[in-house]
Amino acid sequence: MNRVVITGLGPVSSIGIGKSAFCAGLREGRSGISPIKGFDSTGFPHVCAGEVHDFRPQALLRRLDPSAWGRSTLFAATAARLAVRDAQLNLDQVDLERVGVVMGTTCGESQVAEALAAEILNHGFQAQSPEFLRQAPGSRLANGVSEELGVSGESLTISTACSASNYAIGYAFDCLAHGEAEVMVTGGADSVCRWVHAGFFRLGTLAKDACSPFDRNRSGILTAEGGAALLLETLDHALARGARPYAEVLGYGLNCDANHMVAPNACSIAACMRLALGQAHIRPSDVDYICAHGTGTPSNDSVEFQAIHAVFGEDTPPVSSIKSMLGHTMGAASGFGAIASCLAITEGFLPPTINWVTADPEMVGLDTVPNQARRATVRIVQNNGFAFGGNNAIVILGAVA
After folding, report:
1. Contact assessment for residue 142 and residue 106, using Cβ atoms and an 8 Å cutoff
2. CA gap 252, 314 in Å, rounded
3. Measuring CA to CA, which residue among 36, 2, 31, 29 is closest to residue 14?
């Protein structure tokens, strides 16, 4: 099997666009949460989200016409372009048939779907805009990335909800490890919209104005958006072109609770962790940092801690949640986690869990890296991603030896 490394990072987030800005946001513990501007939030008791207000795809895209694509695809394509640029990969010098794309999402083109629903409700099915119908398919996320980059390898969108980016990274890893491709662009994207915001509010999982993972008084998630892309390639391909890898993909684990649509299961999540660690051929004690799923809901954080404790015991490494800064970016969430994990390894720091005030007595001994980033030597990171339907996906990243 080929060794697989990450050589390019492309974050488009509410705390920064591009690797440098995103890294600075993590170091500062910057909050990307603000009052919603993307839709009329009148009537909602909770009106904050993690929106990307300064998103200008036309300034970064080279091939796509932004007017012809939905917001989620534009997030994905812009993130991919940033990742290629960060990797210093000249696409004119690679076999484009050996470059693939796999992107994750929860809701696909959610804003487009909402616009179509409004047309139907207001004027009937005959009023549906052909342009919106063209933009609606979820497959467009990966297709848009392929078109923007001009690559002709496999192009796949994976919709496994909030663990989708980790699923996508695992799929890309397999393609490279087994020689089916030389370069893969992977990650995820989603957009804030009214119906997703309303859905989480009705579930009773929406916080008012701050996400506080692992805090005793945590009250829920904040919806958010963005695109997270990583450029993966075989180590031989990277070395041959003089690339400098951020990290190596050591392994991953996937499973499904098959238990409840929205309630996570600690035993199943612990089993997923063991699968990932086993494929990476490492012990729990080798892990220096866990980039948590950490949504900030009472149930999710409690179950995640139980699973971590079951696997790591008293040797649990620091565990922090970047959702405290970004909000919950849905299908992009574990992609942002993977980017943060790469930066932790190469830049030597642990991203903080902001908005943390009071320790949860049920999580004794948990180090959440509260409120301030911390300098640290990080060689191996576990990046957690869990989702509705019990879709668990965990990726293990390590410093390149």
Report:
1. no
2. 23
3. 31
**Cβ(252)–Cβ(394) under 8 Å?**
yes
Q: Which of 46, 197, 237, 293 is catalytic?
A: 293
Topology classification of domain 251-398: Peroxisomal Thiolase; Chain A, domain 1 (3.40.47)
Nearest-angstrom CA–CA distance, 30 and 371: 10
| 342 catalytically annotated | no
In the residue annotation, 291 being an active-site residue is answered as no
pLDDT at 119: 93
Catalytic-labelled residue, pool 193, 211, 328, 342: 328
Q: pTM, whole model, 2 decimals?
A: 0.97
Residue 161 and residue 51: Cα distance in Å, rounded? 19
Q: Which of 162, 193, 272, 291 is catalytic?
A: 162
- Kindly report, residue by residue over 14-52, the tens digit of the pLDDT: 999 999 999 999 999 999 999 999 999 999 999 999 999
CATH for the stretch 4-240: 3.40.47.10
| Catalytic annotation present for 197 | no
One fold for 4-240 and 251-398: yes
